[in-house]
Write a structure and sequence with these properties.
Elements (H helix, E strand, L loop, with lengths): L34 E6 L6 H12 L3 H14 L1 E7 L1 H13 L3 E6 L2
Antiparallel strand pairs: 1-2, 1-3
Helix pairs in contact: 1-2
Length: about 110
């Protein structure tokens, strides 16, 4: 059927405009949870070196870096940073460059 000029295809017979239903999608949005960067204990690096690396890469003062290093030493791991995925990937890469064992995972 050909629509008269100036009349929209979704127009009602009385000249009004019909209401369209909202589009449906199967996509679900997930909240952007931050990632955490973990440093793990290893038998190779000295505690003083781990402290130095944490100060150098993250700008932590001696007290904070020492506390994190002691968490790594006593608990086996410590969360040294958190943030978006790309930033966390860079932190892990830089920690690896300095010889530390580091991973990242979603914060819970």
């Amino acid at each position: 059927m050909v629509q008269p000029r100036g009349v929209r295809a979704d127009a009602e017979p009385d000249g009004g405009v019909g209401v369209l239903d909202a589009p449906t999608t199967d996509e679900t949005t997930t909240e952007d949870r931050p990632w955490i960067v973990l440093v793990w204990n290893d038998p190779i690096n000295l505690m003083s070196y781990v402290t130095f690396v944490l100060q150098k890469l993250f700008g932590y003062d001696l007290e904070k870096a020492t506390a994190l290093m002691l968490d790594v030493h006593h608990k086996g791991r410590a969360v040294v940073a958190s943030g978006p995925r790309e930033q966390s990937e860079l932190h892990v890469f830089r920690l690896h460059e300095h010889g530390l064992w580091a991973t990242m995972e979603h914060d819970e």
